[in-house]
Amino acid sequence: MKIAVINPSMCLAGGVERVISIQVNTWVEKYNHDVIIITQADPSCSSFYKLNEHIRIIYTGDLIHYNILDDIRGIRMFRKRKQRINQYKNIIKREAPNIIISMMQGEENFFLHKISNNIPIIGVNHLTIKWRKGILEKKLTKRISMYITYCNHLSHWKKYDAIVALSKTDRDNLHKSGCKTYYIPNPCSFPIINEETHERKKQVVMIGRLDYLKGQDQLLKIWKQVSNKFPEWTLLFVGDGEAKQRLLKIEKEYGIENSIRHIYKSDNIQSILTSSSILAFTSRLESFGMVILEAFCCGLPVISYDCENGPRDLVISNKNGFLIPEGNEELFINLLTSLMNNANLRKELGINAKITADVYNIDNVMNQWETLLKLLTKNQING
After folding, report:
1. How far is CA 322 from CA 116, 280, 315, 331, 339, in A?
2. Band of the pLDDT at 366, cuts 50, 70, 90?
């Protein structure tokens, strides 16, 4: 089977790119599928995560070379869209994949079903519906704009052969909207650690890009109340992003900068997690919460806000961590304090976390994907 995967870029060190690398490598190495990745990035932008040598990346780049007559934005966008459609159409015709999988991150959402030439299309919803609708935006104009865009996207997704939702909440919402929806969670990106062969630091870690939606500012408010009681503990942020300077400023304003470390880019998340003791998760919005699953694989208890989607599918209070009602800062502080005080509790929850993670191992999740791929391509293959 030949699979075409579409994502704007593979050069980012993000969760979507990490999941794609796991999936495409497994399709090639375990199932012997032929895989191509179509990306809008420039050819100089190589994949951040290692890909099997048999996987080809097709770079579309930016086709448009503007001249003075194109200064009107509408003309530029129209020309770019038209050329991009033709380029995707030519790639699909030339490569003739059996199935197309779009990560639903780019402009192909608007036209892919029109140029697929009856090739089945799967969309993977990596952006939660709550975000797509603009519910969290403060400006009314932005909320209206995002909601209109969402409705436009939805009209196209209904024509896809399948939409894969990463959370049960999004599965239900998309199904109610008329999409042919399947729930397949992300797989864990590395094996479960069965034995503790390393010493864990007294370290609370949060992993994710630095921006408002990820909610690092909420964790800083909590850490302000906790850090003085635990001077031997450190808070580690892993990730980079547009909120970097704002967060550094808040750390200084709170007077907690000496108890905080930053790693802005890392390709060894597993090592960071196995050397930490607790994963804190204060995101305002998630489609799945990949880092929670990765923490479980490493035997870490997770304390997380219940932000509607991903965490509630993974975190079970008093079993593998604590799920805190969104915005309940006092309860978060109390339970984080309990975890930091009690090594036996951390160990007990960490053991259960690894049991939870086993449900999401690569074999289990990719077998679900294989079943869906065969279902959608059976007419092609049998024909």
Report:
1. 45, 10, 7, 10, 10
2. very high
pLDDT at site 198: 67
- Helices and strands (DSSP H and E) totals, the chain: 14, 13
pTM listed for this prediction:
0.80
Beta-carbon neighbour count of residue 244 at 10 Å?
17
Place of tokens 């380029």: 87
CA distance 204 to 60: 41
User: Are 208 and 280 contacting, i.e. CB atoms less than 8 angstroms apart?
Assistant: no
Amino acid in position 277: S
Per-residue pLDDT tens for 290-336?
Answer: 899 999 999 999 999 998 777 988 999 999 999 999 999 999 999 99
> What would you measure as the largest C-alpha separation in the chain, in angstroms?
69
CA-closest candidate to residue 298, choices 226, 357, 241: 357
123, with CB counted inside 10 A (0-12, 13-18, 19+), is buried
Judged against a pLDDT cut of 90, whether residue 268 lies above it is answered with no
Q: For 103, which DSSP code?
A: -
334-339 long-range Cβ contacts below 8 angstroms, 24+ apart = 335/303, 336/204, 336/222, 336/226, 336/278, 336/280, 336/303, 337/226, 337/229, 339/277, 339/278, 339/301, 339/303
Distance, CA of 374 to CA of 31 (rounded, Å) = 12
Query: Taking CA 104 as the corner, what is the angle to CA 102 and CA 106, rounded to the nearest 5 degrees?
Result: 105
List, in order of start, the domains of the chain with CATH numbers: 2-187+361-382 (3.40.50.2000), 203-358 (3.40.50.2000)
Average pLDDT over residues 103-118: 81
CA–CA distance, 7 with 61 (Å, rounded to integer): 12
Do the Cβ atoms of 281 and 289 come closer than 8 Å?
yes
Query: Is residue 29 a contact partner of residue 61, using CB atoms and an 8 Å limit?
Result: no
Residues 6+ apart with CB under 8 A from 87: 60, 63
What is the distance between the alpha carbons of residues 71 and 82, in angstroms, rounded to a whole number? 17
